């Protein structure tokens, strides 16, 4: 009796947790990419031939070249991320191929890191470590290394979706005063009441926020939005945190704002470019805390994302709506 499985699924990255792959095995033959990115594109182009679905990861772009190599039987694609910048979305749409993503699985981990960056920047973790490293620990002055209080502060959000609201939920325990947010559409009244939140225009967000958290996608409208003009409208005691996309911030202008103490500090998990060169001028500053785009990087998050991506693919193969469609 034949044991041939009806579908072939390409796992286009070496780091997909086995828990997610296991979900596919009952119905699918697994095609696993073995080479690490960015040198695995030739292998992907070879192994995707005849595949019915793909779980896509990494920075390489899933584009027409890869879709052509797969063939017309390709029925479903899912990423393991919230963003879909590594997929040529118009090309998939043109071919009628459903695309899944996994933003909800990343929310908790990114929110946790956001609070960590906020505290680290406000309380001068980077500068403090450098004081220790350079034997400049000051024991004689009471006003040494004073930071910014979270308690009774106004926390602003540029973007107030799942991640922004998860951050606000965590900050409630710090006894913040209120939340301001700038988005295209107003959130529900229930959410506003839960977080003592108010929708404001961008100018008000800049002027009144003690902490300003960017949790927005990159679009033509948000590209470079946080520039010298914006920083000049912020409080000198303000702390900026970016967990959205690096290009939303004009990094040269941010450097000048931090160096001149126009704003107090910044915490960044995203930057431009990525990876950030070790000799980048931003890293010379004491008042910036940088993490290498690891907001999602917890074991549980990766497993949950792999599981959801696999279920997205299975639904797509069955001709059913994906659990977490990207469009």
Automatic annotation (TrEMBL):
Family annotation (Gene3D superfamilies): NAD(P)-binding Rossmann-like Domain (3.40.50.720)
Pfam families in the cross-refs: 2-Hacid_dh, 2-Hacid_dh_C
Top-level lineage group: Eukaryota
A GO term for molecular function: hydroxypyruvate reductase (NADH) activity
Annotated D-isomer specific 2-hydroxyacid dehydrogenase NAD-binding domain residues: 115-295
Domain annotation D-isomer specific 2-hydroxyacid dehydrogenase catalytic: ranges: 11-324
Family: Belongs to the D-isomer specific 2-hydroxyacid dehydrogenase family.
Protein name: Glyoxylate reductase/hydroxypyruvate reductase
